[in-house]
Design a protein that fits this description.
Elements (H helix, E strand, L loop, with lengths): L1 H19 L4 H23 L1 H12 L4 E11 L1 E2 L2 E6 L6 E2 L2 E3 L4 H9 L3 E2 L14 E5 L3 H10 L8 H9 L14 E8 L3 E3 L4 E12 L3 H8 L9 E4 L1 H5 L22
Parallel strand pairs: 1-10
Antiparallel strand pairs: 1-5, 1-7, 2-3, 3-4, 3-11, 6-7, 8-10, 9-10
């Protein structure tokens, strides 16, 4: 945020000089400096848009309860198809992944901003320490800055990959003793009122793409014709249409958030 303020201040000052001293050396230098700064300023502002939005939400919704869910999703794409797994809690297909976990340090931070456990999902051994919480709107910006810092929270997607694809024997453990993956970016949904949550809600999703080795590609391809009850390979059109295609005899329900990996 400080960089944005510095860029905007500098650009404004240079423009003021340019208009104050037109057709002069000072004016020409000011215009040159402005043009040199405007591109990195725009890039910085675009990159910080989520942070700016969170500051605005903290002001606009400061007295409202807000539900926040922060998860990571895997884009596993091969030969034009995407691998989706059937959810454990809901009977639809979705990307492998799950809600980020927090460490004791992270739990201390969340307690300091008055975060409460979300009551939509029963708190059990599986969901304990999830970043699925409810906070006062005034704390949204503090939460997001902490989340961005990556301190006190899970910062790698291996756990859910292993739980959903290796432990379930969908993929052979021998071919996946480790994985390479690439961070593709973050999708932060606009705040909205959710009837399901009975409150305003912000959904955060970090997207990781699997970078399989040649052996792992072969293992993935070997599942193309496997039983589709627990998982399946779906085209982009199937995902966008939530599993329903014209003339298709069967409907494979696909979760809406699956579109985030496309």
């Amino acid at each position: 945020m400080l960089r944005i303020i510095t860029y905007l201040t500098s650009c404004t000052a240079l423009l003021a000089l340019a208009f104050s001293f037109p057709n002069t050396t000072v004016g020409d230098i000011s215009i040159g400096g402005f043009l040199a700064l405007i591109a990195p300023a725009a890039v910085t502002i675009i990159g910080e848009m989520a942070t700016i939005r969170m500051r605005w939400y903290s002001i606009r919704h400061r007295n409202k309860p807000v539900r926040i869910s922060a998860a990571y999703l895997f884009r596993i794409k091969l030969d034009g198809k995407y691998l989706l797994v059937k959810g454990a809690r809901f009977p639809h297909y979705q990307p492998a992944g799950g809600v980020f976990k927090v460490s004791p340090k992270g739990q201390s931070f969340l307690a300091s901003i008055g975060a409460q456990d979300d009551d939509l999902i029963p708190i059990d051994q599986t969901s304990a320490a999830d970043i699925r919480i409810r906070i006062k709107g005034a704390s949204i910006s503090k939460f997001y800055n902490w989340f961005e810092s990556r301190s006190g929270r899970e910062d790698a997607p291996w756990r859910e990959f292993h739980e959903e694809l290796i432990s379930t024997a969908i993929l052979p453990s021998g071919s996946f003793p480790y994985i390479f993956h690439e961070y593709q970016g973050r999708v932060v949904d606009s705040i909205r009122f959710s009837q399901y949550a009975n409150s305003h809600e912000i959904i955060i999703a970090d997207i990781y793409e699997l970078l399989p080795t040649s052996e792992q590609e072969d293992a993935l391809r070997s599942t193309f014709s496997s039983q589709r009850d627990r998982f399946g390979w779906f085209s982009e059109e199937e995902i966008r249409r939530r599993g329903t295609l014209p003339g298709a005899p069967n409907v494979m329900p696909i979760a809406e958030h699956s579109q985030k990996i496309i």
